[in-house]
Automatic annotation (TrEMBL):
This is Ribulose-phosphate 3-epimerase. HAMAP family: RPE. It comes from the Bacteria. PANTHER family: RIBULOSE-5-PHOSPHATE-3-EPIMERASE. Its EC number is 5.1.3.1. One of its GO terms (biological process) is pentose-phosphate shunt. CDD domains: RPE. A divalent metal cation binds at H32, D34, H65, D174. Pathway: Carbohydrate degradation. Keywords: Carbohydrate metabolism, Cobalt, Isomerase, Manganese, Metal-binding, Zinc. InterPro entries: Aldolase_TIM, Ribul_P_3_epim, Ribul_P_3_epim-like, RibuloseP-bd_barrel. Binds 1 divalent metal cation per subunit. It is an enzyme of class 5 (isomerase).
Amino acid sequence: MPIIAPSFLASNFLQLGDACNMVNNSAAEWFHLDVMDGRFVPNISFGMPVIEHIRKTTTKICDVHLMIEEPEKYVEDFKKAGADVITVHFEACRHLHRNIQQIKNLGIKAGVAINPHTPVHFLEDIIGYADMILVMSVNPGFGGQKFIPHTLTKLQQLKQLITEAKANVLIEVDGGISLDNAAAIVAAGADVLVAGSAIFNAPDPAAVIQQLKNI
Ligand code: DX5
Ligand code: ZN
C-alpha cells in the first residue's frame, strides 16, 4: 500500500489547524510541506515559522519539499522547524552529493527531486546516497495542475535504476495525482503519493485519503 502525503499547499491556510487534525485522524502517514522561494519556482508559499506550528500538531512524518535556490543555506533551519525528511531539487544544487550528506548529518532523511525535464539517468551517481527520489509529475510551483503522462515511463526507469544499484530508496511522486491515475502511478513504482487538490478540494478529504491508500 502506498504512503499518502497530503500537500498542505491546497489547504485553507486560515484553517490550518483543522487541516492538520483531519490528516492526523486519517490514513495518511506523512504531511507534505511545499516551500517555495519565488526564485527556483515562480511562486512563494510558506517557510519555517509555519512548519514549526504544524510540527506541534502532529507526530506523523513531516516531509519538507524545498523548491528553493541554495537549499544548503536553510536545511538546518528546516530540521529545527521539525522536518523528518528534506527533499532538495537536483536542478537547485551545485553540490548535490554534499547537500545530501549535509541533510543526513542532521539525523534526518534526504530526498532528491527531479523536474519533468530532468532525465532519470542523471541520478545514476547519487542513487546510492539518497533516501528518497521525488519525481515531479507537474512543473513545480503550483497545485492543481495536470499530471504529465511521461512520468509513468520515468518511474519505470527509476525503479530499474534502483534495482540495478541495489539501493534502498523510496520513490515519491508529486503533482496532479487523483483517484483516476493513482493506480497506474503505484503500478509504475511509486511508494509515496503526494496529493493536494484531490484531497483538500474534496467534500470528504479523509475519505479520499483512504481511497488513495486502498488503491
Ligand atoms: C507543486 C507541489 C505539489 C502540489 C501538489 O509544486 O510540489 O506538492 O502541492 O498539488 P496537486 O496535488 O494539486 O497537484
Ligand atoms: Zn511538493
